[in-house]
Design goal:
Blueprint (H helix, E strand, L loop, with lengths): L13 H19 L14 E9 L12 E2 H6 L6 E10 L54 E3 L6 E3 L15 E3 L1 H6 L3 H8 L5 E3 L9 E3 L4 H8 L4 H10 L10 H7 L10 E3 L11 H10 L11 H18 L5 H8 L3 H28 L5 H18 L8 H6 L1
Antiparallel strand pairs: 1-2, 1-3, 4-5, 6-9, 7-8
InterPro entries: UBR7, UBR7-like_UBR-box, Znf_FYVE_PHD, Znf_RING/FYVE/PHD, Znf_UBR
Organism: Sinocyclocheilus grahami
Catalytic activity: S-ubiquitinyl-[E2 ubiquitin-conjugating enzyme]-L-cysteine + [acceptor protein]-L-lysine = [E2 ubiquitin-conjugating enzyme]-L-cysteine + N(6)-ubiquitinyl-[acceptor protein]-L-lysine
Length: about 400
């Protein structure tokens, strides 16, 4: 259904709106990953991965860092200044414990004083990257994406990673230079399976960009440092690992190959790179000692977490498919004038909602259910004031017809 030629530039079709709404819902579901918006996650213990928030109102900078689950961000911290932390692994909700003084969690009051297994960073005070700046940063005029390290889970500006960010970064995982140096054995893997880059870049804390050329002709390096062909090395390193046995340790063979890696900058890993990690008994101990045993878990990835959220959303949509029929049926029964009225209503609401939400984005605040209710209450108030001027139609009315 489309508007007439004179209306095309000023309006959007209902199909466009519904498709855009569905896309936004899928993105939100991916971020929330099936997190419960009604129940505090504390009883679940240290959740494998969940959406987290920090409350700048209750635990501001200078105090103890604390993280809260999705449900508590809605129920216990409504109207507060929240930092959205995206996801963290193995975290237990802090809401209402000793870090919050006299405040108690409204959803689950019987909590321990401190969650000793939680790990915190400057992210919990709204600061990120090696430059220790907020995001969005009102003082930063350089357009730059933020990328999360899968080990420390901090977020970094692309220009502060010490390397060139490869294309299609959303399909890869990144480990920052600091975490690589804390797990030096990963440099051996990087020499074999890292996503290649042309230059290393190391600007930070206001420094000018400095580029250092590095070798990137990997096949030439293998030829000079190892008499075996790249195909031979690949076959040996990928086919020699045996579960629970050190006789075929893949990491040991990588070290023996003589293939080296410049120990500089963050490392970007290709899709499914975790499956190439050795899982022999010695390597498992190595991962545990370094605190990175999660690297052996393919379901630990943010991609797996997001797919979980998308699958949940798709299942809910499939189960409620019949719920959409009354709306589409009602639209099909309206005449042309009524359809255009609804298109205008959608277009106006879409513009006003974007303007309303932009204020939250500019201040880095989380949008709460109460904020959304307030927006639609304002919309209804405007419609009531316009009611005497003539009849109008809204989708809310149509759903009840």
């Amino acid at each position: 259904m489309a508007a007439n030629d004179g209306e095309e530039d000023a309006t959007v079709s209902l199909v466009d709106v519904l498709e855009e709404d569905e896309e936004l819902e899928n993105e939100a579901s991916a971020v929330l990953g099936g997190s419960d918006s009604e129940k505090c996650s504390y009883p679940e213990g240290y959740v494998k991965r969940q959406a987290l928030y920090a409350c700048n109102t209750c635990t501001p900078k200078g105090g103890e860092p604390a993280g809260i689950c999705l449900a508590c961000s809605y129920k216990c911290h409504e109207g507060h200044d929240l930092f959205e932390l995206y996801t963290k692994r193995n975290f237990r909700c802090d809401c209402g414990n000793d870090k919050f003084g006299e405040m108690e969690c409204k959803l689950f009051a019987d909590k321990e004083n401190v969650n000793t297994g939680n790990k915190y960073s400057h992210n919990f005070f709204g600061l990120y990257c090696t430059c220790d700046r907020p995001y969005p940063d009102p003082e930063d005029e350089v357009p730059d994406e933020m990328i999360q390290c899968i080990v420390c889970e901090d977020w970094f500006h692309g220009r502060h990673l010490g390397c060139v960010v490869p294309d299609c970064v959303e399909l890869q995982e990144m480990i920052c230079q600091s975490c690589m140096n804390k797990t030096p054995f990963l440099w051996n893997y990087a020499a074999h399976i890292e996503v290649p880059s042309i230059t290393k870049v190391s600007p930070c804390k206001g420094e000018e960009d400095v580029k250092v050329e590095v070798e990137n002709d990997e096949e030439e390096k293998i030829k000079n440092e190892n008499p075996k062909s790249p195909a031979d090395v690949k076959e040996e390193t990928e086919g020699s690992s045996e579960e629970g046995s050190c006789s075929g340790c893949r990491l040991r063979e990588m070290k023996a190959s003589g293939r080296s890696q410049t120990l500089q900058g963050a490392v970007f890993w290709p899709s499914a790179w975790r499956t190439k990690l050795c899982t022999c008994a010695d390597c498992k101990i190595l991962y545990a000692d370094a605190g990175v045993s999660f690297l052996m878990d393919e379901m630990d990835t943010v991609l797996a977490y997001e797919n979980k959220g998308k699958s949940t959303e798709q299942a809910e949509q499939a189960g409620g498919a019949e719920g959409r029929d009354p709306l589409m049926s009602a639209l099909n029964n309206l005449n042309r004038v009524q359809q255009l009225e609804i298109i205008h209503e959608y277009n106006d609401m879409k513009t006003e909602l974007k303007d309303y939400l932009q204020r939250f984005a500019a201040e880095g605040k989380v949008v709460t259910p109460e904020d959304i209710r307030h927006f639609f209450e304002q919309q209804q108030s405007r419609k009531r004031r316009r009611a005497n001027a003539g009849q109008y139609y809204c989708t809310c009315c149509l759903l009840h017809e």
